[in-house]
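With this grant's support, we have settled on a layout for protein records. A representative record follows, to show the layout.
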Amino acid sequence: MKRTVILLQILLICALLLPSEGQADIYSFIDSNGTLHYTNTPSDPRQKYQVVVRSLGVPPRFLRLAARKGSSVDPKIYEEHIRMAANTYNVDPNLIKAVIKAESNFDHQAISPKGAQGLMQLMPGTAADLKVQNPFNPLENILGGTNYLRQMLSRFGGNTSLALAAYNAGPNRVEADRDIPAIPETREYVRTVLSHYRIMSADTYSALGRRTRLH
C-alpha cells in the first residue's frame, strides 16, 4: 500500500511538471489478477479505468484526436463507406465526414481516454446497442455512428446543432437543458463540426460546379 501511494505521488509530480499541452490524466485499473496499475494512456477497452489524477490545460478529447499527426490515411478511402451510410440513414455525407474529422481525424484505430473507439468514436456500450461488432472496422463504425447520428437528428427535429451536442454529451443532457449544454467541450465540439461541415459542403458544391462546366 505504501509503495502504491509513493508511485501515485511520483505520477502526480510528473503530470504537473509536464507542459500544459502535454499533460494527461492519470488512470488506474485492476487487472484480472487483482494487481493495481497506473497509466496515462488508457488504450485497452477491456479495462475499467478510473481517473486518479486530473491534469490541467488538456484540450477536449476530440481536439486532441483531430490534431493527431503522422497518419498517412487518405480520407477518400472511406468515401464509399460514407456514401453507403448516408444513403442508408438519410444523412448528409458531408455531415458524416465532418463528425469523423472532429472525432478521429480519419484515424480508424483512434481510442479516446474515455474508451470511445474508431472513426466516429463509439463508446463500447453504444457500439453494442448499434450492433457494431468491431468498432475499429471502418465500415461498421461509420454505419453505426451514422445510425446514431440519424437517431439524434430525428430526436431533435432535424436540428443539426442539437443533434451534434447530443452526439457529444448525450441526448438526455440536451433534452434537460433544451439547448446545447453549457459544457465547454460540447460547445466547442459543435462549433468545430459545423465549421468542418460548412467547408466540406462548399468544397462539394465547388466540385459539382467544375464538373458542370466541363460538360
